[in-house]
Write a structure and sequence with these properties.
It contains four helices and ten strands; from the N terminus they run E-E-E-H-E-E-E-E-H-E-E-H-H-E. It is an alpha+beta fold.
Length: about 170
Amino acid sequence: MFFEILGIRLEEGGLKIMKIVHASPGFGLKLTQEQTIEFLTNKKLNLLLGTVDKNGDPFIHPVWFLYENEKLYVETSKTSKKVQNIQHKDTVYFCIDDENIPYMGVRGKASVKVSTNVEDNIPIAERIMIKYTGGLENKVAKILMDGVRAGQSTILEINPLYYSTWDHSDA
């Protein structure tokens, strides 16, 4: 049993909060919590990650992602502009949208932690590679996983503060 108040879901046996707001009031619908989780879990789309550098200039980074445990995970090089920007400011924006009919998507604001622990990063990076390349034996996955194992990569743990969703399938 659960109660939903202003897009915040409260479940018996523990507090599970997923704040969801409607991205297009007056047009289409917002996704429910279940639809949001399904979209983030099952769609193979790029996440557009918005960061800000030390000069205040914005950057958009298209990345592969994994949604698990109410978090988004991204594998990237330790020396990437994403990591440099996050070390300066650990608040990011993200957007994942499907440009195919029915148009829908999820965007939001989040805090980010950078993990450099190789042993923790390997299984997460493997799941990202399987999601986007279909396995670990292909050339792309092997090259990227070699970097993870060598400690050249990090995992960004993105903790959404809210989700702004839209579903224009009936609009």
